[in-house]
Amino acid sequence: MSLVQEFRQFAIKGNAIDLAVGVIVGAAFGKVVSSLVGDIIMPPIGLLVGGVDFADLAVILKAAIDDKPAVVISYGKFIQTLIDFIIIAFSVMMGVKAINAMKRKPEPAPEKAAAPIPPAPQEQLLMEIRDLLKHKA
């Protein structure tokens, strides 16, 4: 089998196509979630915390000299990214929870009739005596 034929079989298999569709939809969904967080959720949070922009927080290790840029640890950008991640993860969790709630729940299987409970030994003995007396009469 030639390399081209092997590649064609691989590319046409359902798994490869499903993976490609998943990646494309996932990328588009990532943009939607990023917009949700950046454009809808973060502005009210920024208003609540007084307009603090974490991205501006940094420690300057070495100031800029002439044409050399400053050496900076931008821990504020990390904090902002961490907050964005928590909000995105929570939003995705709530979306998945909503989708799962909308899914149809399978109908429960009908319960099998329980086997009758056998009578107690005393009752069994009394029933045998009754049957014997019926036959004698």
From TrEMBL:
Top-level taxon of origin: Bacteria
Alphabetical keyword list: Cell inner membrane, Cell membrane, Ion channel, Ion transport, Membrane, Transmembrane, Transmembrane helix, Transport
TM segment ranges: 12-33, 77-96
Location of the protein in the cell: Cell inner membrane; Cell membrane
Membrane-topology descriptor: Multi-pass membrane protein
Xref: InterPro entries: MS_channel, MSC/AndL, MscL_channel
Pfam families assigned: MscL
Keyword Transport: yes
Cellular compartments per GO CC: plasma membrane
An example molecular function term from Gene Ontology annotations: mechanosensitive monoatomic ion channel activity
Known function: Channel that opens in response to stretch forces in the membrane lipid bilayer. May participate in the regulation of osmotic pressure changes within the cell.
Entry's family note: Belongs to the MscL family.
HAMAP family: MscL (MF_00115)
Subunit comment: Homopentamer.
Entry-linked NCBIfam families: mscL (TIGR00220), PRK00567.1-4 (NF001843)
Protein name: Large-conductance mechanosensitive channel
